[in-house]
């Protein structure tokens, strides 16, 4: 183990980006641009990795094998700045329309029948105190919906929850990447 990184304490949040997933992961420079920013984060972000294991053993418990049968990756973050396009991204059936003639934006939710969810590429970037980056990249769908709480004394924050989907032939759910050494 590298003691330099094991002893490191990480403080702070980061930035969340999204774009359409086209089958490959683009470069950092293509993803991490202002037009791809999902919104500014409030109350941090959480990545959850949950393996599901199956143990099989004989009656005398002498032969035991453990198998990985399923993995789930969920990313959660509070979005303090958002718009109707962000809500469309976080909905299963949203349809967003920007009518420049009437100067109205509309999001409608709800559709009949089975709807295939659209996968998006999401990238969370945490900049460490030395200027290096820690990146979380996943292809995911928003499956938890959202709630809008308009409070008189606080910002309306949307709790985005994204469930990762395998995005390559290896079954990759999430890519965690950390820069180290001299700040890039």
Shape: globular
Mean pLDDT: 89
Radius of gyration: 20 Å
Low-pLDDT regions: none
Strand count, sense and closure of the main sheet?
8 strands, antiparallel
* N-to-C span: 22 Å
Structural class: mainly beta
- The total domain count is 1
Q: Give the strand tally.
A: 10
Number of separate helices: 3
Order of helices and strands: HEHEEEHEEEEEE
Q: In percent terms, what proportion of residues is strand?
A: 35-45%
| Portion of residues within helices | under 10%
Protein architecture, described:
- It is a single chain.
- The chain is mainly beta.
- The chain has one domain.
- The protein is built from 3 helices and 10 strands.
- The protein has helices at residues 3-6, 28-31, 84-89; strands at 15-20, 37-39, 41-57, 64-79, 95-99, 104-108, 120-127, 133-142, 158-164, 174-178.
- Strands 1, 2, 3, 4, 7, 8, 9 and 10 form an 8-stranded antiparallel sheet that branches.
- The protein is globular.
- The two termini are 22 Å apart.
Structure summary:
The chain has 184 residues and is mainly β.
Question: How are the SSEs placed, and which strands pair?
Answer:
Layout (H helix, E strand, L loop, with lengths): L2 H4 L8 E6 L7 H4 L5 E3 L1 E17 L6 E16 L4 H6 L5 E5 L4 E5 L11 E8 L5 E10 L15 E7 L9 E5 L6
Antiparallel strand pairs: 1-2, 1-7, 3-4, 4-9, 5-6, 7-8, 8-9, 8-10
